[in-house]
Automatic annotation (TrEMBL):
Pfam families: CsgA
Protein name: Sporulation protein
Top-rank taxon: Bacteria
InterPro entries: CsgA
Amino acid sequence: MRVIIIDNTLHYLRESLANTSEQDMTKQLIEKLQTTEFSDEEEFVKSLDEEEIAYLDSVVEKELNYARNANDEVRAGQLLEVYEQLF
């Protein structure tokens, strides 16, 4: 199996998705992150369909709020980079 190097922003996104890993869409997105080499969050978001974007929007928004409430500015900043690419 090939190891995919993932940038920091996508690493934080994958960690956030892991918090909801029981969902089929989460599994689909994690699989995409693990099997495709994306140079950055913009390239990843461009690979998503409308359903994936809608789902990711809700997950990232919740995780972003959690990071802000926990005063985790690094995590919040990384997730904000993904969130901004969704629109």
